Fold Uracil-DNA glycosylase.
Amino acid sequence: MTAETVRLAKSWREALAPEFDAPYMRALKDFLIASKNSGKVIFPKGGEYFRALDLTPLESVKVVILGQDPYHGDGQAHGLCFSVRPGVRIPPSLANIYKEIQADLGIPPARHGFLEHWAKQGVLLLNSVLTVERACAASHQGKGWERFTDAIIARVNAQERPVVFMLWGAYAQRKAAFVDSSKHLVLKAAHPSPLSAHNGFFGCRHFSKANEFLVKNGLTPIDWQLPEKP
């Protein structure tokens, strides 16, 4: 797993080359290979570990949404946080995201959970940990992914162009605590999980605030309305 061998947008490949060459990434690669060789099923599939980076090149990032771990159920994870494949039941947190978008922008909830439309417009849908063992939540935490995704956030933070960071829940807020809020728009709210959405996620209006900030800085706003057919 090197910057040359994984599928990555050129800008990310160049920006993250030092990370791929670091010992911790070699150890992470060895861990993933050993897990697969022992018969464990890893989500998402190998070609989609870096799907968020592939769809949203560094120079295109306008908004960063941080998740924690990939979904660990069959057929769900495909490399974008909160997103699921077409035909898969919409997870509860994403359903609450849709509810807030409707309250904020008047956009009716999508009938699917496939978020590539956002990613292709510059929404970096980044999980902190990029893989998980089937049916074992948080099973790949502490294996090196967190350091790698910290580096991704740092590269975005270093961009001259202002970016919106949507940090939902304490975990995301801690992870991106170093982001320069004098340059970027840092939006914080409770996590959209049903356990916490009523504690400040509902009513946060992050989606309209993000677009207002983008327009103010001469950037095209995000079309948060997903196509009917993914």
About this structure: The mean pLDDT is 96. The CA atoms of residues 92 and 206 lie 18 Å apart.
